[in-house]
Amino acid sequence: MISVEEARAKLYDLATPVGVETVPLAQAAGRILAQDVSATRDQPPFAASSMDGYAVKRAEVELHAMFKLVGESAAGHGFAGRVGPGQAVRIFTGAPVPEGADFVVIQEDVTARGNLITITDDPGDKDNIRPAGGDFRAGDTIGAPRRLRPADIALLAAMNIPAVPVSRRPQVALISTGDELVMPGGEPGPDQIIASNTFGLKALFDAEGAQTRILPIARDRVSSLETALNLARGADLVITIGGASVGDHDLVAQVAEGLGMDRAFYKVRMRPGKPLMAGHLAGASMVGLPGNPVSSMVCGHIFILPMLRRMMGFVPADPQLKEGQLAEPLSANGPREHYMRACIGSGGLTAFPSQDSSLLTVLADADALILRPPNDPPRDAGDTVFYLPL
Ligand SMILES: Nc1nc2c(c(=O)[nH]1)N[C@H]1C(S)=C(S)[C@@H](COP(=O)(O)OP(=O)(O)OC[C@H]3O[C@@H](n4cnc5c(N)ncnc54)[C@H](O)[C@@H]3O)O[C@H]1N2
Ligand code: MOO
C-alpha cells in the first residue's frame, strides 16, 4: 500500500495535458484559460467623464464663476473642438473629455440659463475624469491558467477578445460495475440497489470542467466488463467504480490487465478509498475507484479532481486544505489517512458519529472532510486540524 501523497504523484504522471481549443467568448465562462491573452486596446481609450455635468478648465473653477456653453460631448459622440478660456462643454457620463478641459463640474453644482452656466455650489477638488488607460492598457495580460469567472468574461470582452484559448474539457468515461446495480428510474429486483456513484461523480467532475459520459453498467462478468471498457475508448480518463477489492466477483483489475492495462499502483493507505487502482489503458489514463459510495466520492475529491486540474494545465493542483478548530474531541486514528465527514459550525468542526463509507446521507450533510494523518493521536476540542471544504 502506498500513501495518499505517493498515489497522487503517480496519478499526476498519468494525467496527460488535454491541449487547447478556441471557443467564442460567450461560451468561455467556467473554462480554463490555457494561454495568456493581452488587451488589444486601452480602456477607457480616452479621458472620460465619470459624471453628467460641464467640462471646463480646472484653473477657472470657483464658486460663482460663469462659463459660456460652446458644445456637447455625449458617450459615442465627442466634442470635436477645444475648450477655450471661459468656455464649457456640456458632458455626459462616459463621454470623451474635450481638449482644453481638465475638470467636470457636476450639473447639481451648476445653474444654467440659455448658453451661460454659473457654478452655484462648491464643486470640490475631484475632477470627475477617468484617465485614458485607467482600467487597462493595450498589452496588459490575463495570465493562464485561470478558471474564467463572469468578471473575467466581461474583462476579456472589454479587451476586445472575441475568442478565447481554453483547455479542452477532459473527456471522462464512467463505468459502474456490479450485478446488484440498476440505473435510477429502473426497477430493482429484491437483491438490487440503485447505481448512485456514477451520478455523483459526473456532477463532481463536470463542475470542475470535465465532460463526463456515464456508460452502461458492467455486470460481474469478464465479457461485460470488456464491452464496457471498449465503449470507453476515446476518453482521456476511464474510471471504473466497484469490483476493485478482493472478493470473488471483483474483476476489474483482471479484466483491465487482460486488455493491456499497465498498472501504476493498487491500494492506498487511506480511509475510505483503500482499494484504489490506476494505470494506463489503450492511450487513456484509467482509475479503478472503490464501490462504496462515500469511498468513490472521497476519492473523486482527493484524486480525480486534482488529476483533472493537471490535465487542464493547473500546477499545483492538490486539494486546497484549510486549518480549523475541532468543536469536539476525536479518538486516535489508525494506520490509514482518514478523511472524516464533518460539518463546520460556529464552534468549529464536528465529525459525524458514523463514518461508514456506505452512508450517502452523512456525506450529503457534510461540508468538510477532516484529514487525520496515519496514527494521529487522540485530539481535544479546540485542537487545530486540516480539512477540505466540500
Ligand atoms: N475482505 C475484504 N473485504 C473488503 C475489503 C478488504 O480489504 N478486504 N475492502 C473493503 C473496502 S475498504 C471497500 S471500499 C470495498 C470496496 O470494494 P469494491 O471496490 O470491490 O466495491 P464493490 O464490492 O463492488 O462494492 C462495494 C459496495 O458499494 C456498492 N456499489 C458499488 N458500485 C456502486 C455504484 N455505482 N453506486 C452505488 N453503490 C455501489 C456495492 O453495492 C457494495 O455495497 O470493499 C470492502 N471489502
Ligand atoms: O476504503 Mo473503503 O473505501 O474504507 O470503504
TrEMBL record:
| Cofactor(s) in the UniProt record | Mg(2+)
CDD domains in the record? MoeA
Q: Is the keyword Transport in the record?
A: no
Where does the MoaB/Mog domain start and stop, copy by copy? 173-310
The cross-references to Pfam families, in alphabetical order and at most eight, read: MoCF_biosynth, MoeA_C, MoeA_N
For this UniProt record, give its keywords in alphabetical order, as a comma-separated list. Answer: Magnesium, Metal-binding, Molybdenum, Molybdenum cofactor biosynthesis, Transferase
Q: What is its EC number?
A: 2.10.1.1
Broad enzyme group: transferase
Report which reactions are catalysed by this protein: adenylyl-molybdopterin + molybdate = Mo-molybdopterin + AMP + H(+)
- InterPro entries referenced in this protein's UniProt entry, alphabetically: MoaB/Mog-like_dom_sf, MoaB/Mog_dom, MoeA-like, MoeA_C_domain_IV, MoeA_C_domain_IV_sf, MoeA_linker/N, MoeA_linker/N_sf
Pathway membership, UniProt? Cofactor biosynthesis; molybdopterin biosynthesis
What family name appears in the similarity comment? Belongs to the MoeA family.
Instruction: State the protein's purpose.
Output: Catalyzes the insertion of molybdate into adenylated molybdopterin with the concomitant release of AMP.
This protein is called Molybdopterin molybdenumtransferase
